[in-house]
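TEACHING EXERCISE
Course module: macromolecular assemblies
Task: Read the component lines below, then compare them to the predicted structure of the full complex.
Student: A.B.
Group: 4
Components provided:
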Amino acid sequence: MLEVHALRKVYRVPKKTEGLWGSVRSLWNREHEDVVAVDGIDLRIEPGERVGFLGPNGAGKTTTLKMLTGLLHPTSGSLTVDGFVPQDRAVAFLKSITLVMGQKQQLIWDLPPSETFLLNRALYDLEPALYQESRAELVELLELGDVMDKPARNLSLGQRMRAELAVALLHRPAWLFLDEPTIGLDVQVQQQVRKFIKTYNQKRGATVMLTSHDMNDVAALVDRLVLIDKGRIRFDGSLASFTKRFAGGRRLVVRGPSDLASAGLERADDGSWSTIGDAEAINRVLQDVLREHPGADVTVADPPLEEVLTAAFGAREDAE
Amino acid sequence: MTANLRAVPDLMRVGFASIVAYRAEMVIWILTASMPLIMLALWNAVAMGRPIAGYDQDALARYFTVTLVVRQLTSAWLVWALSYEIRQGALSAKLLKPVHPLIHHGVTMMSALPFRALVLTPLVVAVIAWRPALLAWPGIGPLVLGLIGVGIAFAMNFCIQALFGMLGFWIDKSDSLFGAWFSVWVLLSGYIAPLSVYPEWAQALIRLSPFRGMLGLPVELLSGELGFAEGAAEVALQGLWLAALVWVTAATWRIGVRRYGAFGA
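Instructor-supplied answer key:
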């Protein structure tokens, strides 16, 4: 289990006024400012959960992941992962986690992935049988057969990302911390990576915590959402409850009729008409529309996650 | 610890593969460290006709050839690797692994030894062909002490470079400070001149300093300039310096890693 209590991280950042005079002044008068990246968060994650950790840039997502994996020492507060204090970097803890951040993390740039696999076998002290089994499984699932013997620098972004994932999971960690695992990848590779992460979670019972700006990642992978902004948690709950709370209801989309403004619907760029409301309101509008336009093409669904997220952060701006 | 030891052969194998991948750069780097051969040419000219500080031309050839070899066996590039990793956030990947990053680096540096030996061999053979009299048996005692001294010198160089590299936890360009240290090291380690060239008082100070144990001491033992008894006392002092350096390195790591920002990664 992962438990975080009142976790805080403050960075001390040097400040320099621009221009030559600023550079000269900073020689003897170096100023600093404290930047609060994570501001007292509480969190509890059970084994096997798939949690999406979302927020705008600079919200504190990556800093939190780095603290959870022991890379950063918290300024205050407590955190444990399976009873380990991450920053102690106990060997058993390090063998039970992995952190994937971007596509240039683990692979040795001028050597083929097969060499990085060997390196990780040594670093994680993997038994030969386990190593062979895990390697074969990952190479198959991530379709890496053709790239194992090519230098990492010659691989495409998608191949590199898949190889990074494979190397990161070679030791079969129980905790996966993934920072933007599909960023920069084409749609096909994104889907492949998502499918793989979900399979790994289900097959190994591993816990997944991921940050992403891609709502497709969230929709495909996550059961639970944690929203962080300005270092504080603004929401923690299921995807359904998130949508219910911030979407303002369900969305009715009507295609066909040329004008539904009088019925209270808004026109979208693609020519469709839509409105958001609770079940009763949607039902009422739907009946009106179908009475006037019996052949209209109608759908009722949750609004896209991007919109809900925008609404969630918009609500925060309004509250301030 | 046992797991760390078990990791060594594979780490060395992958380290060696990296060295081979960067072979051209490595050859150039090794050759740029051939300063002892330049010093040999200079001192050889000075010592023509009369010995300098007890060294005749053959002894000078022996001293600088052994210096060349010992320098290659004991040097590292940790200061640049570590300061880069700290500044760029690349240390994160190593921090997430169960093997300590400094052990990982240490093994990688050692894996370069076979390649260094390969590049060095023709140079050493050429010097021997030029002056065969430089070959002399130092005696079993000094030889064994000298080999121990080479191991300690490698570890001392490694710790010093780790310390300068770790300054990256506090300042932006820690490797530039290493340049200042290296200038002093060049003067006092025996790299450009044997110890006996210096005045008596300077020799006494250098013997007590860590510079001596980082190069000159094993060189003098292996070239037969230093006897067993005197050498043993100096190797013991070298061991004390290493113990102190290991302690300071470990303490600095513990404090420094708390400040690590993991930026850019």
